[in-house]
Amino acid sequence: MLTLTRRVGETLHIGDHTAIVVEALEHGKVRIKVQSDQSTRMVLADGKPADRPVLGLSSSRER
Fold it and tell me: Is the pTM of this model over 0.85?
């Protein structure tokens, strides 16, 4: 397991097609945005599929 510290607005890139962005910290909760190809399957920890659509990564993304 990897544990990271990120600030609001910072991004973690996983491979070439997935990015996790820290959107907000509010009332002890973290809101994240996962950007990925439509072909990437996302499942929540409870086994339910994540809501779609998920925004695709743009070719001009910053790293």
Answer: no
